[in-house]
Design brief:
It contains 4 helices and 3 strands; from the N terminus they run αααβββα. By secondary structure, the chain is of the alpha+beta class. It has 2 domains: about 55 residues, Immunoglobulin FC, subunit C (Single alpha-helices involved in coiled-coils or other helix-helix interfaces); about 50 residues, no CATH class. The longest helix is centred in the N-terminal third of the chain and has 21 residues.
Length: about 110
């Protein structure tokens, strides 16, 4: 695909997610449909959804995760601190680490400098 079509696809995905967030409280069915369309556009254009948007979609049932209504957000401090997002429709959980992992190159550079 050309870069122009990918740019158009990115713009449409952004618009659909904004519409889904705006219309979720009034009509959740429409918001879910907007998300389905955005996912189909991303797949057809061979684009990955940005992490901002993937965190708002349940990986199992593909529903819109709206904190407090369709999802529960908790922080955990076991092992390493992380956030747990639980979908209230299907019970699927997402874990998001709070501390970013160091890249291997950064660690190798530190060893060389010492």
């Amino acid at each position: 695909m050309s870069s122009e079509t990918k740019q158009i696809a990115k713009q449409r995905i952004n618009v659909l997610f904004e519409l889904a967030e705006a219309n979720y409280k009034t009509n959740p069915q429409i918001a879910r449909r907007y998300i389905e369309i955005a996912r189909k556009i991303a797949m057809s254009a061979r684009l990955g959804l940005p992490t901002i948007y993937t965190r708002k979609i349940c990986k199992k049932c593909h529903s819109f995760l709206f904190p407090g209504e369709t999802s529960r957000v908790r922080t955990k401090s076991r092992r390493e601190p992380h956030i747990v997002i639980t979908c209230l429709n299907c019970g699927n959980q997402k874990r998001i680490p709070l501390k970013p992992k160091l890249k291997l190159k950064n660690e190798q550079e530190k060893i060389k400098n010492e």
